[in-house]
Structure prediction request, 588 residues.
Amino acid sequence: MEYRGYDSAGVAIINKGLHVYKKKGKVANLEESLVAKDMHAHAGMGHTRWATHGEPSDRNAHPHVSANGKLAMIHNGIIENYARLKQELINKGYTFKSDTDTEVLLNFVQDIQQNNHCGLEEALRIALKRVVGAYVLVLLDADNPDTIIAARKGSPLVIGVGKGEHFLASDASPIIEYTKEVVYVNDYELAIIKADELVLKNLGNEKLTPFIQKLDLQLAAIEKGGYDHFMLKEIFEQPDTIFDCLRGRLDVQASTITMAGVQNNIDKLKNADRIVMIACGTSWHAGLVAEYIFEELCRIPVEVEYASEFRYRNPVVRPGDVIIAISQSGETADTIVAIDKAKEQGAFIFGVVNVVGSSIARISHAGAYTHAGPEIGVASTKAFTAQLAVLTMIALKVAQEKGTIDQKRYNHLLNELHEIPEKATAVLRQSEHIKKIAAKYKDARDFLYLGRGYNFPVALEGALKLKEISYIHAEGYPAAEMKHGPIALVDEHLPVVFVATRDSYHDKIVSNIQEIKARKGKVLAVITEDDTTITGMADDTMVVPAADELVAPMLSVIPMQLLSYYVGILKELDVDKPRNLAKSVTVE
Ligand code: F6R
Prediction:
């Protein structure tokens, strides 16, 4: 679970009483501090934190312990009305050991339990009716050492069902080593778990039947498989993950794309008045590429929205609108709430999600999985290219059904898509060359990334990857926009990365490169392999095989990923767990 948060970690076990151990920093720090401890127990829980309320420290790490020392709680999410609850508790004489909202909620539960002389389960149910915010909670009770109680609203929770044992986690990856049978807990549900019993209830205390699903996930998929880092493994997996994403869907011989989620809703999709892509971060960049593709092929107006902005303004959404929600994790809180908002206003929601069974996959009306396999490296890489592959297939299918693409172009693009995995392999062969380029520029203070058309979002993605992994300030811009401001940054110290594969903007971007050279900027360019024009101008080049401009971003992004990775490792940074980040952003 460490990839979901790693600023501190802690465990609680019950073994003749409640024992809680916590440490600031990565799990390894905690592990080291526990070497000499007896950690045997029949019930226990652990947590890795991404700080919201209170700086990363031993005392703010989870699990938290209630004032009476009997209850322990771990919590993901944010309790929005915690300040008011805290004041109520302070008025009653409670004191707090941490700065967290979690400790407030825990003592609130304890207080209810004491006042109502009730068990933990009932106290939790009462407490949750007053709580505003998102959470997944897991509790241990020293008076009931065989039981774990959990509750969910807005943050993910999966329960693994083993033989005489149960497991709880934020996603399925740590569970698959022990069992492939899982239950996804829904919002407003409570799970009361013993080694050999799982009871699921709603907040009205009614029992629910757990729906057990079988996971189709192999252990090897969440291991490093001989690579130094997950990020590198995931970059190198891309020929396979793109292939997996196309497999069973794209048939070049038959000239077909088979996607049930699209086919079953084709009328809604092809008659959409407007498509709104909603996403965050790297997934938002995939949405930007898709905007160009959908408008070009389907002639449907497209808007691309940051989920976090869309949800808080008063967006105009009409029943004829199709929302395409893009998310690797399927658990990004901002995206989930934006979907809920659009749904309320009658939009049709189509999810493009990587994690099977995740919240976004479940709340969408229809969707298509990206099938990239688990992405553990905190910086998104293979999920991005798989998102592009899926979104391109959807656009092609809709365009064909709508009659906005002729058969020749359709067949050509099917073939171009089909060739991407092989061409991606060719790009990866340059990794040593890109490592040398990384060594040359790793000490730069700033980077500028420029691209036009389909490659403009790739420039944004390149800049985001570098920022995340190397902590170097980087900005992505449409290449033509640079003369309206960012060009003021250019001097002989500034590396400018051009994503400049051969496309309909090529001559224009060549002029932009000249403009940078004229101001002594250092030019690093991602180019098509036979491009002698840019080779003659750039300080360094990274080549990709020729491809139609519509599918080229799946190739041109790979050198960007490798460049960030190598700058990161040459600076001796933890590329899989960059500071301040977490893999799934399940808080707003
Ligand atoms: C960047 C990165 C983030 C995510 C963003 C959305 O490398 O990983 O920007 O893309 O947090 O996450 P998902 O796609 O899980 O909704």
The two ends are 20 Å apart (CA to CA). The chain has a mean pLDDT of 95. Residues 280-283, 327-329, 332, 335, 379-380, 464, 468, 584-585 surround fructose -6-phosphate (CB under 6 Å). The longest strand covers residues 71-79.
